[in-house]
Amino acid sequence: MFSYIARRLVLMIPTLIGITFVVFMLLALSPGGIGASLRVSGGQMEASKAAQLEAYLEDRYGLNDPVVYQYAKWLGRICPVKFGTRDQVTPSGELIRPPKSLVTPWMKESLYPDLENPEARKNEPIDTGSLDTDEKKARAYRTAARDYAKARADYIVATKELKHAYARYAKATGIEGAVDDDGNPRESRIPGVTIDAAAPSWKPVQAAAYKVLETYEIAEVARDRLSTIFGIKPFDEVGVPVLPGLVSLASPDLGTAFSRGRPVSDLIADALPVTLLLNLVTIPIIYLIAIPSGMLAAARQGTLFDVLSGATYVALWSIPRVWAGVLLIGYLANNQYLGWFPVSGLHDSDAASFAFLPTWTDGEFHRGYMLDTLWHICLPVACFVYSGFAVLSKQTRAAMLDNFNADYVRTARAKGVRNIDVVFKHVFRNSLLPLITMFVTIFPFLLAGSVVIEKIFSIPGMGSLVLEAITLRDRELLLANTIIIAVINLLALLLADILYALADPRVTYD
Amino acid sequence: MTGQTTMSNTNDPTSSSSPIMEVQDLAVSFDNASAGPGGPRIQAVAGVNMSIYPRQTLAVVGESGCGKSVTAMSSMQLIPRPPGRFDRGRIMFEGRDLLSLTEQQMLKVRGGDIAMIFQEPMTSLNPVYTIGDQILEAILLHQDVSNEEAVRIAVKAMDDVGIPDPMERLRSYPHQFSGGMRQRVMIAMALACQPKLLLADEPTTALDVTIQAQILELLRELQRTRDMAIMLITHNLGVVAENADVVCVMYAGRVVEYAPVFDLFDRPMHPYTRGLFRSIPRLNDSKHRLITVDEIVEDPAEYQQLPGHAEGVVPWWPDPPDGVKPELVDGDEYILHQIDDNRWVGCFRSTHLDSMEASPPSLDFRRPDLSSVGQ
Amino acid sequence: MTSKDEQQKTISGIDVMRGVGIDRAKDFWADAWDRVYRRPGAFCALVWIGIIGFFAIFSPLIANGLPIWLVQQNADGTTTASSPLWQNLTATDLMLLLGGFIGIPWILIPMKIGRGHRLGMLITLGILSGLIIVLASAVSGYFGDSGASRWAREIEQTAWFVPVSTSVICIICGAGFLFIPFVDRILPRTVLVVVTCLLTGLAVGSRWNEPLINYEKYQEMAADGDARAWYTLVPWSPNESRTDLYVVPPGLTVKEKLDEMSEKPFGDRQFIMGTDGIGRDVLSQMMHACRLSISIGLISTGIAVLIGVTLGALMGYFGGIVDLLLYRLVEIFMAIPVLFLLIVAAAVLPRNTYVMMIIIGCVAWTGAARFTRAEFLKLRSQDFVQSARAVGLPLRSILFKHMLPNGVTPVLVDSSFAIASAILFEATLSFLGLGPEGQASWGKLLSSATGVTGTFVWWLAIFPGLAIFLTVLAYNLLGEAFRDAIDPKLRKAAH
Ligand SMILES: Nc1ncnc2c1ncn2[C@@H]1O[C@H](COP(=O)(O)OP(=O)(O)OP(=O)(O)O)[C@@H](O)[C@H]1O
Ligand SMILES: [Mg+2]
């Protein structure tokens, strides 16, 4: 059994890689690519600021790297096995990585080999000895990190400027094919071009190159400083080392959401319990309604009850979730009509001040946190329940009928077993097996349904998070959601298989 | 035309008892699901008569769909109703009509007085319960014993049917057993409550030949030690020849011939029975090609060999060759007619036969080897 | 003689075993259809789907904001007559109308050729025509895009661009379809293909660019007495938005809502199902959305079945490593809820109908694959497959000619449910605002029922919701009926 579970868990890895790859590719291949919304969001700033921000974000999230490389990097962060220098974590939980390396100035060899940087590198060593307390170290790190980030951004913006300037120059002097459709210079065409230094459009290129060199030097210095400080470990190191300095184990890093600037794991930690709460309330209700009604229908096969309940199941099951949700909200929650239930959310706005249990003070009833929550999830759960229970009832009936005609039921009757015992002891016990398998269908169904239902009822769960991630094209958030949903789903399937093995003595996984 | 039982034949030395079960003019029909409403009903059994005596093995043979299982299941009221329906007839068991018993009374009979084993040992045991659970269930239903006592009985029953290491095996699940072992379990389960009659519906068809022989040997032995009557339903004439005392040949829901096993094999009288025997390949008879049943029942000459043919006693057949059918009396065209002391043949109900007294078959006969060993 | 009569009404068990009483005259599918027809639920479902199909084809002629006939008074006293409605029909509208007018009698009138065969011809030519339209719209979209490169835009300006590209598309598609043996003899096949290509080409070529439509122009002309205009039954187009007529309740006329309109000739126009938040007629949208719903259901399921059956057949037939690898692919799609993937894909890919069909088809194929795989695993070891292999038939022939007809039944029965769920997916995506743009859709209408204002507009919830519900229910009932009709036979065959 354990080896079976282990094998299943291992087999989950390629599946997870596959699914995240599909999602990643979809994002990357979409018009605008990853982070399209980031670029748009800079629209209101002044142009140079926007360019700076864009360059910074692209650099920060590696949006300019090849897609496959970006994906590999993302996998590397998700992977619990880390190589090289270990990351560090601040007391507040922020993850600190070793400083990123700098690329050398763009096309220096080909375009401006002789250009010199006016100022020498003033690489004054920092006195690490003076940083004796953790607090000092942390402060020093913060300063250095800010400096480096700024210097790096400047450098990237300068590089961009240089490219533009060169593109203008290439156009003006009529170098063929030097610029691509988007107006960026083609790097492959640059080595070997003869530069017409007299051309008026060369001046800006030179100026930009000068700026590039300057910012590069500054950034290098800042980076060195940062590296040094990082080297003295201002914060605790993450994970446990396996081969010191080479391999270590650490929990997966889900990254930071572009859109909200919060660690994705925090967002998920807030949203996941909500969705699980909905599901965990729903599933027992579904099974509790479905099994008896399905059994009854099977026991009364062909009667009016059977026919009517069969028709009801198909009808219920055909009601679109979105419609049910809208109608429930419209008629039961909206104040225009009945207004019995809250329209949105999971709690009242002042629920945080409620006691957990209902109380009765000053002759007034206070429903308390728990009842408040239950009251809020009534309609969403109803939305979840009706279709799931219809599917399950139908399955129960079919399974029971299958078993009613089974040979061993005939044997039991021939032994003189009472009818009711035949139904419960023999037929039902065997019908349980397909019902366990049904879990495989029900669970993803509910998970997917939560996207719609959480949207309709404005519940801050995983579904809402997914929608937010997808509308903002937030790569980190979306991938994290994908992987969490996939893991939950796969674990549920595994659970169903294990339950099946427990329920059916014929199935063993050894 | 439900005839009263008359004990007329007494040429057998051991004939002293009365039949333990008597099927009298049983007719069972089913709704035809595939024909839709208003379509023809399926008349699975259309007036069957037979009787079983204690310690007797009655073999019921006939081709698929002729109503053997339906007859057996009717006596346990195991026919699902609907779609099934008892049209007429009675099944007398110890002075009671089994068909008129309530469900409550039937529970006592099923598994207690009458036990049944089925053809498919692979699927006839509930896969999710242990063998022990299933045997104990039967014992606790019919015997007022404590749990430990029941376990002891179960172990004994399993030991009786030759299951090695019964105590251990009680805890096994059906899928851990081979087909032959499962059939033994079925037999143990059926016999644990000391039934007076065992309905064995093709108990060996699904098993391979050596296991078949073992199971039949086992049944014979158990019958000897427990004075049990067996209704043995089978397709296999070899099994009939070796195990049966009396043979009942059925076709299309009716009995076409009913006789002690030796008489039947020596001198089959109904064309269909003859056809059955001649269609069996024989090793020492390589010259002749095999003759099919159809060829025989389509040959008018075959119908004339019955004693009394001159008076108009013609073997019954659903669609006989031209010129064979005699003048019939109104109503059912079929009657089970006693040809001689210990032989009944299904005949057309001609004017001649209608005037004679109809008698349900009743043969208190046992093979000599069996009865001699029993004493 | 009553007893005799009674006896004739029964058959014996032996007859049953020999197959007497089972009607062998009909073939498998005809018999299944027969059983389906007999169920009242399934019959109603068929009728409903028929109604939806009718609107899918004819809604431009029933609900349109453009005058079907316009007689203009010229300055010099002469009149000119025209049909703005006709001029603004899209190529798809035209071909569907043509298909509707020819196809419905073609199917309904009794002929020597079997009905199934006729339907097959119609569907094949429909696919051909659809393919041409899709390709043309892709070409026009690519070249007409504002982000297209300069040479593309230059080519697009030239006079010969439209005729040449249309004929190239037509010739490529037509040549391909000549090889599909939907009619046995080559001559009639060629004629059919050429005629279809020609007609579609004309339709596409004449409606290359989407015209800008000004609905109010005609209304004003009529109001000023410059012209007389005749309108269709429902004189509103689905995308015709009059912001002064927002959220009009059902049954109200324009006059009742806007007093100043009472003098105008179109003041009597009624909004039978009201209007939505930006003043578009709901009934018209409902009718035009039928096309989206029906086509998404059918085409995406078609794609899914195609992918699923092909992969499932390969898995089931080869087993081993092929099975292992391909099954990982199935598992990937099973690991994540279908709706989730759909949302991701629909959000990032271009919002149009064709893309949506492809997305749903590409995500929802696992069911068909699993069914086919299971069937092929069973069939693989059967005699007729073994002998087909032994005589050295090519793999394609073994898989698709010998095994597929035997193994595809469960998939086909299941596809009715798949259509239902595809329609649900479309509605859900449209509800979430991820549906095709510029297309009337039930889901989109439904989503505006609880608008930003927080008020609940019942006619925006009831009508579209009911339409989705009934359509999904119809397909589910049909699926159930088919499954029940076929299941006992499958069981019988298995014995
Ligand atoms: N539950 C049922 N519903 C409908 N028809 C039934 C049912 N049970 C039996 N029958 C019909 O009764 C006929 C006789 O069946 P029965 O099982 O008695 O045949 P049999 O002689 O035992 O055949 P076999 O040798 O194959 O076991 C069959 O043709 C079958 O169609
Ligand atoms: Mg039988």
Poorly predicted spans of chain B: 1-15, 370-375
Following the backbone from N to C, one meets helices and strands of chain C in this order, namely HEHHHEEHHHHHHHEHHHHHHHHHHH
Overall outline of chain B: globular
Q: How would a textbook summarize the main sheet of chain B? A: 8 strands, mixed
If you compute it from the alpha carbons, what radius of gyration of chain C comes out, rounded to the nearest whole angstrom?
27 Å
Question: Going across the major beta sheet of chain C, what is the strand order?
Answer: 3-2-4
Class inferred from helices and paired strands of chain C = mainly alpha
Q: What percent of the residues of chain B sit in helical stretches (DSSP H or I)?
A: 25-40%
Please report the total strand number of chain C as a whole number.
Answer: 4
State the CATH class of the domain at 282-494 in chain C: Mainly Alpha
CATH architecture level-2 label of the domain at 282-494 in chain C: Orthogonal Bundle
CATH superfamily of the domain at 282-494 in chain C: MetI-like
- Strand arrangement across the biggest beta sheet of chain B: 6-7-8-3-9-10-12-11
Oligomer: heterotrimer
Quick synopsis:
Chain A is mainly alpha-helical.
Pick out its properties.
heterotrimer, A: 510 residues, mainly alpha, 3-stranded antiparallel sheet, 8 strands, C: 495 residues, MetI-like fold, disordered N terminus, binds adenosine-5'-triphosphate, binds magnesium ion
Describe this protein's structure.
The complex is a heterotrimer of chains A (510), B (375) and C (495). By secondary structure, chain A is mainly alpha-helical. Chain A contains 15 helices and 8 strands. In chain A, the strands form 3 sheets. A 3-stranded antiparallel sheet of chain A has the order 1-6-5, with no helix packed on it. In chain A, strands 3-2-4 form a 3-stranded antiparallel sheet, with no helix packed on it. Chain A has a two-stranded antiparallel ribbon with strand order 7-8. In chain A, strand 7 (359-361) and strand 8 form a beta hairpin. In chain A, helix 8 (264-299) packs antiparallel against helix 9 (304-318), helix 8 packs across helix 14 (462-471) and helix 10 packs across helix 11. Chain A is elongated, with a radius of gyration of 31 Å. In chain A, 35% of the residues are buried. With 375 residues, chain B is α/β, with parallel strands linked by helices. Helices cover 31% and strands 21% of the residues of chain B. Chain B has 14 helices and 12 strands. In chain B, strand 11 and strand 12 form a beta hairpin. With 495 residues, chain C is mainly alpha-helical. Helix content of chain C is 68%, strand content 3%. Chain C has 22 helices and 4 strands. In chain C, strands 3-2-4 form a 3-stranded antiparallel sheet. The longest helix of chain C is centred in the middle third of the chain and has 37 residues, at 282-318. Chain C is globular and about 85 Å long. Chains in contact: A-B, A-C, B-C. Chain B binds chain C through residues 29, 32-36, 39-46, 63-67, 70, 251-253, 318, 330-332, and chain C through 1, 3-4, 7, 9-18, 21-22, 38, 488. Magnesium ion (MG) binds next to helix 1 of chain B.
